[in-house]
């Protein structure tokens, strides 16, 4: 097994506590260890790492990221969704969530993303993170045999409804797959092609699939054998312990008693970050968006050729371990870290089917498990996704405390941005303490945590005048 810190000269034994053992937190541990730091990971789940948002990830990676505001009719759809008359990404909105002041502030920041040039800037920043993450995954797989054992599939298929759309996809460089060939390559799609609603398919070679949960577990095992690494499972961080001047964190107090002393703190807690950090950095613009997925063992063959089939923007079918997974249903103020069952699971399956039918005309009756049919062992998963107004993560030093850092707010792209985010975070820790130089090829400026502050927006407006 290769050492995480291979190539590190004169290791600096600063002690960093990372709070949160999802794919982001574990990736941060790996990168901090590479910089020669001592790391303690605090994970509230006693069962292991990646047990929440990273547990039921869609496993999808794409080097080209398109911000959600690129969706056709986005402003209108978002406003209608707030009134309960429309869908966003798709979205269902809780009235109790909409009426909260923090939601209003988040929404104002959201509409600021429609300023001229913002779409291209967001797309470039997100794509840079995605491309760097994919490159880092390749390097890790080359170094560690246990990561090579995970199934790796490339190519994402998007269903195309008509000839006009097919021509547009071809101009984008996508490979067009005729209807009959679709059925040959993916028998699962036969009912959809036979309905006449699917004209052909368009293949995006930049998309690929890799098991996020399995990767995170294996990456944590790689970290755990390093002498400078320790993990405390079942350890829930309650608050930060500050010095006498309240300028620095000197430790993390644990729920139930005890604390872990440290030199720096990294918060990688997903949706829980906003509440945990409220006493130190109020009004952190992260909204918890509930995400749902349905998975089942199909009677027809699973996906044979492609890593994922996209039915419509933001909603698709992927596979893992012989089971199919459909994801893309989200709503504000909803979602839980649990596995719905019974009538709740049936309701989620019905919502997914209705969403596809109303937005694309595709009837998934021949694809999704039938209501009450337990032969395919259907199950659902629900969890929160931490969304910022621009859907880009917050990475780096978080004032006013001098040694507090965040790596959170990855929206629905945590897996696709994980290792690149961790690289930026580790750079920020080293540079802020005057102990290192920037090593990442990704520009950190689009992800700085203070970008939503009033001062930051005044600077942006001045630059546009």
Domain count: 2
Q: Mind telling me the CATH class of the largest domain? A: Alpha Beta
Low-confidence runs: 7-11, 85-93
Q: How much of the residues is beta strand, in percent?
A: 15-25%
Percent helix range: 25-40%
N→C terminal distance: 55 Å
How big is the Rg?
Answer: 22 Å
Mean residue pLDDT? 81
The DSSP helix count reads 14
Say how many strands there are. Answer: 19
Structural class: alpha/beta
The CATH architecture of the largest domain would be 3-Layer(bba) Sandwich
Shape: globular
Largest sheet: 10 strands, mixed
CATH superfamily of the largest domain: FAD/NAD(P)-binding domain
| CATH fold assignment of the largest domain | FAD/NAD(P)-binding domain
Question: What would your notes on this structure say?
Answer:
This protein has 14 helices and 19 strands. The chain has helices spanning 23-34, 74-82, 95-98, 101-111, 118-143, 145-148, 163-171, 179-185, 190-194, 212-224, 272-277, 342-360, 414-432, 454-464; strands spanning 15-19, 38-43, 60-62, 91-93, 152-160, 175-178, 200-210, 229-233, 237-242, 249-254, 259-261, 264-267, 287-296, 308-312, 315-320, 323-332, 379-387, 394-397, 404-408. Helix 1 (23-34) packs parallel to helix 10. The longest helix is centred in the N-terminal third of the chain and has 26 residues, at 118-143. It has two domains: 12-68 and 116-149 and 211-282 and 390-465, 3-Layer(bba) Sandwich (FAD/NAD(P)-binding domain), CATH 3.50.50.60; 152-208 and 287-387, D-Amino Acid Oxidase, subunit A, domain 2 (D-Amino Acid Oxidase, Chain A, domain 2). It has 465 residues and is of the alpha/beta class. The model is unreliable at 7-11 and 85-93 (pLDDT under 50).
